[in-house]
Amino acid sequence: MLDDLTIRTDWTREEADRIYNQPFNDLLFQAQTIHRQHFDPNQVQRSKLLSIKTGGCAEDCAYCSQSARNGATLSASKLIEVERVLAEARKAKEAGATRYCMGAAWRSPKERDMDTLVAMVEGVKALGMESCMTLGMLDDNQVLKLKGAGLDYYNHNIDTSERYYSEIITTRTFADRIETINRVREAGIKVCAGGIVGMGEEQMDRIDMLLALATLESHPDSVPINMLIPIADTPLAETKPLDPIEFVRTVALARILMPKSHVRLSAGRTEMSDEMQAMCFFAGANSIFVGDTLLTADNPGEDKDAALFARLGITAMAPGCDGQR
Ligand code: SF4
User: Fold this and answer.
1) Which long-range contacts (CB under 8 A, 24 or more apart) does 13-19 make?
2) Are 63 and 234 in contact (CB under 8 A)?
3) Protein residue with least CA distance to atom 2, ligand 1
4) For residue 317, what pLDDT is reported?
5) Which of 28, 67, 169, 322 is deepest in the core (most CB within 10 A)?
6) 238-267 pLDDT, tens per residue?
7) Is 257 in the pocket of ligand 1 (CB under 6 A)?
8) Ligand 1 pocket, 136 CB below 6 A?
9) How confident is the model at residue 319 (pLDDT cuts 50, 70, 90)?
10) 68: in domain
11) Quick check: is 7 in a domain?
């Protein structure tokens, strides 16, 4: 049960399409109005993401340099040591990050890695930061172990619409993804689930991707919206860039359909102008990843983000604050 009657999980495609395609100024006004009802409009959460196991992934996500099936040349590493993760988390905390996200390039974690993963979560929690992991598909036992360690969020993106999904990934299904998301939520871990746009999909795929998230039993607590970073040698290397206005419309629709979720402006910010990012914040994005790298891709550095926040009068959410009204 959702606790607020203005939060709906019964959106229809017609409604979502109408919202997305209304005149741009009306869309932004609606998104900003809803954003203000639920969040401080001038606060943005800063999260830090660390790759704890890079490359050699068995999945075939067409956008990803870490897939062993794509032509990208990234070499595979082992799961890194707990102390290294915690040293990086301490640095991130000192630099102002309040959430620490750890990502591993796996189809799913192996049993032998679970104790290490549990120790990472416990260590990050002991620093007073929120913890988030993305490790691929999880079974019930793995979910319970991570919940027992105190994991706050689990990230599992649906990537795109169900219709377009098989153009992007063939090694696991859209239904597999929804199953993991439901399993995580049922265990009481907050869900972080979003997708990637600019992968050659149609407008209706962007709408349907958000609709799939907004009509889950409850909305994901965090909705990352990524802009494709075309990576050499991957199947999407030559994909034409998406019109930035379409990207902003996607962010606005996410905010309107899922009013209380943190909408996170994720990968692709290096290619976005300050003005485009400002427009995304106005459309309701209220979380970013900070630091020079995002798993394996470039990200604007701390200085650039601090300068942008100062120009826009935005402050970073304090630890323990979710920016909600
Ligand atoms: S996106 Fe994740 S699951 Fe897909 S290939 Fe890359 S690392 Fe593997």
Assistant:
1) 13/207, 13/208, 13/211, 16/207, 16/210, 16/211, 16/214, 16/253, 16/257, 17/204, 17/207, 19/253, 19/256, 19/257
2) yes
3) 105
4) 80
5) 67
6) 999 999 999 999 999 999 999 999 999 988
7) no
8) yes
9) low
10) yes
11) no
2 confidence band (pLDDT: 50, 70, 90): very low
What ligand 1 atom has the least distance to the C-alpha of 67? 5
Q: Please name which of 128, 104, 116 lies closest in space to residue 56, comparing C-alpha atoms.
A: 104
pTM exceeds 0.85, yes or no:
yes
Q: Pick from 129, 229, 144: which is nearest to 188 by CA?
A: 144
Residue 18 corresponds to which tokens in the numbers above? 């109408």
Q: Kindly name the residue from 46, 99, 101, 206 that is annotated as catalytic.
A: 101
> Does the active-site annotation cover 84?
no
Domain of 186 in residue numbering reads as 26-312
Domain count, the chain: 1
Query: Ligand 1 centroid vs 108 CA: distance in angstroms?
Result: 10
Q: Is 71 helix (H, G, I), strand (E, B) or coil?
A: coil
Which amino acid residue places its CA nearest to atom 4 of ligand 1?
Answer: 61
321 annotated among ligand-binding-site residues = no
57 lines ligand 1 (CB under 6 A): yes
Per-residue pLDDT tens digits for 194-220 = 999 999 999 999 999 999 999 999 999
> Among 210, 273, 220, 216, which Cα is nearest to 245's?
273
Tokens of 310: 């100062």
Active site residue 280: no
Q: 270 falls in which pLDDT band (50, 70, 90)?
A: confident
Whichever domain contains 60, its CATH number is: 3.20.20.70
- Concerning whether 192 is annotated as a catalytic residue, the answer is yes
Residue 82 Cβ < 6 Å to ligand 1 = no
In a domain, 18, yes or no: no
